[in-house]
Amino acid sequence: MNKCLVTGAAGFIGSHLVEKLVSNGFYVYGIDSFTNYYNQEQKKRNIEVYINQPNVAFYSADILSADLSLFAKDIDYCFHLAGEPGVRLSWGQTFQNYLHLNVLTTQKLLEFLKNISIKKFVYASSSSVYGICNLPMQEASLPKPISPYGVTKFAAEQICHTYWHNYQIPTVALRYFTVYGPRQRPDMAFSKMIRCLKEGELFYVYGDGRQTRDFTYVEDIVEATISAAKSDARGEVINIGGGSRANLLKIIEILQKISGGKLRFKHIEGQKGDPVDTLADLEKAKKYLNYKSKTSLEQGLRSQFQWFDDLLDT
């Protein structure tokens, strides 16, 4: 039985990944530090889907202070999803959290794993590394992140590359493009929109609402992440997008159709560090991972809306 370590295992994407790995016959060591970035109760709900499975061992710990030999010395794969998310909070004094959780933890993991023969180290990076870039965003483009968050994600990518070059750790960095779906973090736009629709609250739209994102459904992200672990890719950076580029006004229109309600919203000043548009070039993902997004934007939004609905009923 293949064994793997998943960091950030109680998070939005991490919990889906652990659930899928267990269903595919992997033994999973999960670790999460339960930071206070958002309500820990949601993370506790996230792990309920797998915590009692016989093929899971879960640890609540900070990677920097944890004894990695307890759960990483005999693994075949490492999926490194732990980190401090969010562009808007990465400015000012909180930047130290991003250094701690995005950069230093990545270096510690790789330093530990350099003496262990693993099949793949998959790092969850972000489209935020690109900053302002011609569309579609290609991996060969020179990253010019415009937020401290993006800087730390790019720094961690480069750390992966150095350990691949010098110690031959088989790393792959996946640049996720705006992930959505059930269990999405409550600070993210879709979660906020759905909650405001359900509770009649006012939703704040940053800027004119015409900025676009390449939205990617979480199940497609998970499939691509597992494919990266099994692939022949080494030392590569690969985009993972959904091919569902839309602006926020279009998202509001779809969610109103799904809910049958009317979203009250107000335009406010745009946020520093947010790119105007994103769109992934997926040629490398097709080449190395045989990747193709399977979930349409409306399908994915319906699933996320239903998940929130079910959550209110519990």
From TrEMBL:
This is NAD dependent epimerase/dehydratase family protein. It comes from Desulfotruncus arcticus DSM 17038. Belongs to the NAD(P)-dependent epimerase/dehydratase family. It comes from the Bacteria. Residues 5-241 form the NAD-dependent epimerase/dehydratase domain. It holds the Pfam family Epimerase. PANTHER family: DTDP-D-GLUCOSE 4,6-DEHYDRATASE-RELATED.
